Amino acid sequence: MRAIRGVVPVIDLLVFLVISALVIAGAVGVVMAERIFHAVLALALSLLGVAALFITLGAEFLAAIQVLVYAGGVVVLFLFATMLTRSDLQLRRPKGDELAPVGAVVFAIIALFYVASSGFVSLGERGSVAGSVENVGKLIFDLGTYAVPFELVGLLLLAAMVGAIFLAKKEEAR
Amino acid sequence: MVEDLLMKVLRGLVGVVAVILFLSLNVLFLTWMERKVIARIHVRYGPNRAGPYGLLQPIADMLKLLTKEDIVPEKADKLVYNLAPVVAFLFALLPAAAIGIGSGLIAADVGVGVLYITAVASLSTLAVLMAAWGSNNKYSLLGGMRTAAQSLSYEIPLVLSMIGIVAIVGSLSTQDIVAAQSQTWFGIIPKWFIFYQPLAFIVFFAAVVAEMGRIPFDLPESESELVAGFHTEYSGMKFAMFMFAEYIHFVVGSALVVTLFLGGWHLPVISPMVENLGMLKYLVQVAIFVAKMYVIIFVLMWVRGTLTRTKVDHVLSFGWKGLLPLALANVVITGVVLSI
To answer: CB under 8 Å to B242, separation ≥6 — which residues?
Structure first.
């Protein structure tokens, strides 16, 4: 029995590795894809993978929001915009990308150091309800915590939206 | 621990099989029912050759589609084109997991229930856009762009109209929402949310029909101008998968209306009577739920037989200028009433 009991963390690790591989594959796809449309689809894969990672950490609310806003909203808008461009549009690689692997390695090392030095939440600590509706709501709306920054971000987005509409309307009038 | 895990895996598998079986049977029946109902509205007979009352027609249709030649357009984006029907089918199945057809009869009682459902339901737009783009056809592309504009516009009133209910219940889980509607006034009038939130019901119903892409909101595939919209280039089994996904949306949307506004598997006089009947209780619950679901489905077919298609600009302005303010007003009213 004890031998089987050791299987559970292994399954956890496997799930984590598979999802992480999907996320990274999606991210690489975004950069490497030759067509914009494929790049956006790869982005969707990556974002859905992140949502899956949220679920493995017990943050169902964040996962749902991630899917609703990013995969269901932002990516659809990207695709929508892509459809307004020419269908034979191919992305041209900038010249001199021989150094790209070096950049990737350097970035990976920096990211690894950053993750190692910050508080790394392992899968064993999931089941914590940090991402539940109640806790997220308290963080956003309790005055002591993030209420003011949250409202400011909302104001900023509103300003950006009004600006975008203004620019689009101006274009129309010309 | 290990036993827990095994039970979890087993329960998950049973749930997956049950959801797919439930949806498939309903979809097969629906294709027949839709043709029959529309035919009666047109004063025709509808399918009446295969089996009694033409009931075997869906099976004949399936066989026909299975054996048809699979045509891939030469200029298509092959990968995206072939992937789109599979993705559409998968994303259509996902929301059904969090809808219960009886107390405890649910594939996955997700804590964020209705939010999960709207989130994964919004993904099916992705599949439509993939089909539209991959086909490399102007009609597909136009249909796909209409889908994107329409589903993004109606998602907002859809989510907003659910906030009132979530605020009253204090939970996002579909099981909790149905449980909150089990009471009655004087033992006869059910305390369903359609009576507490009539405004939200109207908004939700309209938005759900728009998300399903049915008449009067079926612009994405309006055959008079776009041939068949996003699935113009699809044939055989791939076309069948799109049809299947569409009817699954139909079932799931109707089930969601029943869950949120019509008391799920509760019925005033009958539900208390079967409370202590053991297994029979679950049978009655499923029967009540399915019956209610088919009332909604019938109404939607009726609408299809009665109304005409709306113009695309009218659909969008109705969403933004009609439904959105109503949904916001409902949120404000509910908030004020609840805080008094």
So the answer is: B85, B88, B131, B231, B234
Instruction: Quick: pLDDT tens for B8-17.
Output: 788 888 888 9
Contact B220, B128 (CB under 8 A): yes
Mutate to test the interface with A, among B83, B86, B126, B155 (most CBs of A within 10 A): B126
- Which residues does chain B have within 8 Å of residue A77's beta carbon, measured at their own beta carbons? 148, 152
Q: What is the mean pLDDT of chain B?
A: 85
A12 touches chain B (CB under 8 A): no
Nearest chain A residue (CA) to B123: A72
Which of A4, A69, A80 is most worth mutating to test chain B (most B CB atoms within 10 A of its CB)? A80
The CATH label, of 1.20.120.1200, 3.30.450.80, 1.20.120.430, 3.90.1150.10, for the domain at A1-90 is 1.20.120.1200
Name every chain A residue with its beta carbon within 8 A of the beta carbon of B118: 68
Compare B298 and B70 and report the one with higher pLDDT: B298
Distance CA B21, CA B43 (A): 33
If one counts the domains in chain B, the total is 1
Q: How far is A76 from chain B (nearest CA, A)?
A: 6
A5 touches chain B (CB under 8 A): yes
**With an 8 Å Cβ cutoff, is B272 touching chain A?**
no
Tell me the pLDDT band of A130, cut-offs 50, 70 and 90.
low
DSSP for residue A128: B
- Domain extent, residue B276, equals 2-339
CA distance B230 to B212: 14
Alpha helix (H) residue ranges in chain B: 2-41, 57-67, 78-93, 113-121, 124-135, 138-169, 174-179, 193-196, 198-212, 223-226, 236-261, 270-273, 279-306, 312-317, 324-339
A window 134-173, beta carbon within 8 A of B = none
User: Rounded to an integer, what distance in angstroms lies between the CA atom of residue B109 and that of residue B100?
Assistant: 8
Question: Tens digits of per-residue pLDDT, A77-102?
Answer: 888 777 776 655 556 666 667 777 88
Beta-bridged to residue A90, according to DSSP, are A35
C-alpha–C-alpha distance, residues B203 and B198, integer Å? 9
